[in-house]
């Protein structure tokens, strides 16, 4: 199935929600969502906003300028989950995050031990080399 086009006229991105209300639920969203305008140059920012307003008026919401330049297009791909499946997915997702954190800690412990071993080896080699 081809991705629908958003109000900007761009193909949408397929994303996955991991909120408490909709874990694992896929949706189509504007590809510009989360992309920020460059605010450090006032003239550049104003120029871009004016051009967007002229050529893509749907980017701007009724109550003002969208903060991220996205048209806020949103459409669920998957149906809503029942309470049981929602809880199962949330528990799996939490467990995976816990395991990833534990693995990262173990890898960092291994990295510290490896660095210590290399430094110790370099010191021994240096002392041996000086002793000759």
Automatic annotation (TrEMBL):
The chain crosses the membrane at residues 114-131. Residues 6-80 form the GRF-type domain. InterPro entries: Znf_GRF (IPR010666). One of its GO terms (molecular function) is zinc ion binding. Keywords: Membrane, Metal-binding, Transmembrane, Transmembrane helix, Zinc, Zinc-finger. This is GRF-type domain-containing protein. It comes from Linum trigynum. The lineage of its organism: Eukaryota, Viridiplantae, Streptophyta, Embryophyta, Tracheophyta.
């Amino acid at each position: 199935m081809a991705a629908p086009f958003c109000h900007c006229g761009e193909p949408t991105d397929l994303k996955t929600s991991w909120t408490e209300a909709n874990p694992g639920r896929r949706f189509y969203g504007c590809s510009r969502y989360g992309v920020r305008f460059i605010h450090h140059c006032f003239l550049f920012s104003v120029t871009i906003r004016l051009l967007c307003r002229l050529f893509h008026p749907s980017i701007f919401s009724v109550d003002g300028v969208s903060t991220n330049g996205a048209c806020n297009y949103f459409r669920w791909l998957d149906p809503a989950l029942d309470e049981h499946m929602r809880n199962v997915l949330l528990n799996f997702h939490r467990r995976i995050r816990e395991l990833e954190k534990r693995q990262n800690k173990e890898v960092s412990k291994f990295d510290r031990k490896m660095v210590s071993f290399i430094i110790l080896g370099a010191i021994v080699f240096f002392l041996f080399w000086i002793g000759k």
